[in-house]
Amino acid sequence: MKISIVCGSFHREEVVKMLEWASNESSKHGLTIEEVVWVPGAMEVPLALDRLLARDDIDGAACLGIIEKGQTQHGLAMGQAAIKSIIELQIVHQKPVGLGIIGPGAEPEHIEPRLEPHARAAVAAVAAML
């Protein structure tokens, strides 16, 4: 089975670590990562995901990223919109999508301990649904 991974680049250093753990988890489940797509942030994830899930050679996908808590509700609104779109794309394309986006509302001290578990859980969810 072939999957793709969509990565938000706003926290690139941390998401690169997540991608390494996601790749390791993919291997454990016998999944091949066919393509990795980097997007600017969470709001661009659904468009990239839609394009990938429309491909016949992609069986599922995982989304990795971080939405930090800001001083306003912008991150919360953005995160809710992105996650709702991701769920809808999963249903429309009938292909599993693992959600490895930390937040919305993540405080800086919450990020590092969640990188590995979120990345691995996103890929494991795709594997389970496939």
In a few lines, what is going on in this structure?
The protein is α/β, with parallel strands linked by helices. The protein contains four helices and four strands; from the N terminus they run βαβαβαβα.
How can the largest sheet be summarized? Answer: 4 strands, parallel
CA-atom Rg in angstroms = 13 Å
Instruction: Provide the helix percentage.
Output: 40-55%
Beta-strand percent range: 25-35%
What is the total tally of β strands?
Answer: 4
Q: Please count the helical segments.
A: 4
Low-confidence stretches: none
Indicate the overall shape: globular
Helical/strand content category: alpha/beta
Biggest sheet strand line-up: 2-1-3-4
- Mean pLDDT, to the nearest integer, reads 96
H and E string: EHEHEHEH
State the end-to-end CA separation: 8 Å
Q: Key terms for this structure?
A:
four-stranded parallel sheet; 4 strands
Structural summary, described in words:
- With 130 residues, this protein is an alpha/beta fold.
- The chain is 52% helix and 26% strand.
- It contains four helices and four strands, in the order βαβαβαβα.
- Strands 2-1-3-4 form a four-stranded parallel beta sheet, with helices on both faces.
Question: Mind sketching the topology for me?
Answer:
Blueprint: E1 2-8, H1 12-28, E2 32-39, H2 45-53, E3 60-68, H3 74-93, E4 97-106, H4 108-129
Parallel strand pairs: 1-2, 1-3, 3-4
